[in-house]
Amino acid sequence: MASYRDKKVITIGIVHELTGLSERRIRYYEERGLIFPERTTRGTRKYSFSDIELLIKIANKREEGVQTNEIKKDMQNERKKKNMHDGIIQGQLNAHFKTNSRPNIK
Protein backbone atom coordinates (compact mmCIF):
# COMPACT_ATOMS: atom_id res chain seq x y z
CA MET A 1 0.00 0.00 0.00
CA ALA A 2 1.40 3.38 -1.00
CA SER A 3 2.13 5.99 1.63
CA TYR A 4 -0.17 9.00 1.73
CA ARG A 5 2.91 11.07 0.80
CA ASP A 6 3.14 9.31 -2.56
CA LYS A 7 -0.52 9.37 -3.61
CA LYS A 8 -1.02 11.68 -6.59
CA VAL A 9 -4.13 13.62 -5.58
CA ILE A 10 -3.12 17.30 -5.56
CA THR A 11 -3.90 19.60 -8.49
CA ILE A 12 -1.39 22.02 -9.99
CA GLY A 13 -3.29 25.01 -8.57
CA ILE A 14 -2.84 23.72 -5.02
CA VAL A 15 0.82 22.90 -5.73
CA HIS A 16 1.23 26.51 -6.89
CA GLU A 17 -0.31 27.77 -3.64
CA LEU A 18 1.83 25.49 -1.45
CA THR A 19 5.15 26.09 -3.21
CA GLY A 20 4.80 29.62 -4.53
CA LEU A 21 5.95 28.36 -7.93
CA SER A 22 3.96 29.49 -10.95
CA GLU A 23 2.00 26.83 -12.81
CA ARG A 24 4.17 27.60 -15.83
CA ARG A 25 7.34 26.92 -13.79
CA ILE A 26 5.90 23.63 -12.47
CA ARG A 27 5.07 22.51 -16.02
CA TYR A 28 8.59 23.54 -17.12
CA TYR A 29 10.12 21.26 -14.45
CA GLU A 30 7.91 18.47 -15.79
CA GLU A 31 9.10 19.17 -19.36
CA ARG A 32 12.71 18.99 -18.14
CA GLY A 33 12.07 15.53 -16.63
CA LEU A 34 12.47 16.64 -13.02
CA ILE A 35 8.95 15.89 -11.82
CA PHE A 36 6.43 13.30 -13.00
CA PRO A 37 2.79 14.04 -12.20
CA GLU A 38 0.08 11.56 -13.07
CA ARG A 39 -2.63 12.55 -15.52
CA THR A 40 -6.34 11.95 -15.15
CA THR A 41 -8.36 10.73 -18.14
CA ARG A 42 -9.09 14.40 -18.87
CA GLY A 43 -5.40 15.32 -18.72
CA THR A 44 -5.39 17.05 -15.33
CA ARG A 45 -2.02 16.83 -13.61
CA LYS A 46 -2.03 15.27 -10.14
CA TYR A 47 0.86 15.60 -7.69
CA SER A 48 1.78 14.03 -4.35
CA PHE A 49 3.18 15.54 -1.16
CA SER A 50 6.51 13.94 -2.15
CA ASP A 51 6.31 15.82 -5.46
CA ILE A 52 5.73 19.09 -3.59
CA GLU A 53 8.81 18.47 -1.43
CA LEU A 54 10.82 17.69 -4.56
CA LEU A 55 9.61 20.87 -6.28
CA ILE A 56 10.71 22.95 -3.30
CA LYS A 57 14.11 21.24 -3.35
CA ILE A 58 14.42 21.93 -7.09
CA ALA A 59 13.40 25.58 -6.63
CA ASN A 60 15.98 26.03 -3.88
CA LYS A 61 18.72 24.59 -6.09
CA ARG A 62 17.67 26.86 -8.95
CA GLU A 63 17.90 29.86 -6.62
CA GLU A 64 21.48 28.78 -5.84
CA GLY A 65 22.20 28.88 -9.58
CA VAL A 66 22.16 25.16 -10.30
CA GLN A 67 21.00 24.38 -13.85
CA THR A 68 18.10 21.99 -14.44
CA ASN A 69 20.30 19.51 -16.33
CA GLU A 70 22.63 19.34 -13.31
CA ILE A 71 19.67 18.83 -10.97
CA LYS A 72 18.38 16.02 -13.19
CA LYS A 73 21.80 14.35 -13.24
CA ASP A 74 22.03 14.58 -9.43
CA MET A 75 18.54 13.09 -9.07
CA GLN A 76 19.45 10.20 -11.39
CA ASN A 77 22.64 9.55 -9.39
CA GLU A 78 20.67 9.55 -6.13
CA ARG A 79 18.21 7.00 -7.59
CA LYS A 80 21.07 4.79 -8.78
CA LYS A 81 22.70 4.88 -5.33
CA LYS A 82 19.38 4.06 -3.65
CA ASN A 83 18.72 1.18 -6.06
CA MET A 84 22.24 -0.16 -5.54
CA HIS A 85 21.85 0.11 -1.76
CA ASP A 86 18.47 -1.65 -1.92
CA GLY A 87 20.04 -4.41 -4.05
CA ILE A 88 22.86 -4.91 -1.55
CA ILE A 89 20.41 -5.12 1.35
CA GLN A 90 18.25 -7.59 -0.59
CA GLY A 91 21.33 -9.67 -1.39
CA GLN A 92 22.32 -9.74 2.26
CA LEU A 93 18.82 -10.79 3.27
CA ASN A 94 18.80 -13.49 0.59
CA ALA A 95 22.17 -14.79 1.76
CA HIS A 96 21.12 -14.74 5.41
CA PHE A 97 17.82 -16.52 4.79
CA LYS A 98 19.24 -18.62 1.93
CA THR A 99 16.63 -17.60 -0.61
CA ASN A 100 17.03 -17.24 -4.32
CA SER A 101 14.86 -14.15 -4.66
CA ARG A 102 16.34 -11.61 -7.04
CA PRO A 103 16.46 -7.96 -6.01
CA ASN A 104 13.62 -5.85 -7.37
CA ILE A 105 15.70 -2.99 -8.79
CA LYS A 106 13.84 -0.38 -10.78
What does this structure look like?
This is MerR family transcriptional regulator. Residues 9-77 form the HTH merR-type domain. With 106 residues, the chain is mostly helical. The chain has a single domain (4-97), classed as Orthogonal Bundle (Multidrug-efflux Transporter Regulator, Chain: A, Domain 2), CATH 1.10.1660.10. The protein is built from 4 helices and 3 strands; from the N terminus they run βααββαα. A 3-stranded antiparallel beta sheet has the order 1-3-2. A hairpin with a 5-residue loop joins β2 and β3. It is globular, with a radius of gyration of 17 Å. The mean pLDDT is 88.
Uncertain segments are: none
CATH level-two architecture: Orthogonal Bundle
Question: What share of residues are in beta strands?
Answer: 5-15%
What is the general shape? Answer: globular
| Sheet with the most strands: spatial strand order | 1-3-2
In total, how many domains does the architecture comprise?
1
Please provide the ordered H/E string of secondary-structure elements.
EHHEEHH
Report the helical percentage: 55-70%
Q: Name the average pLDDT.
A: 88
Largest sheet: 3 strands, antiparallel
CATH structural class: Mainly Alpha
Strand segment tally: 3
User: Termini separation (Å)?
Assistant: 18 Å
What's the helix count? 4
Give the class from helix and strand content and strand pairing: mainly alpha
Specify Rg, calculated over alpha carbons: 17 Å
**CATH topology-level name:** Multidrug-efflux Transporter Regulator, Chain: A, Domain 2
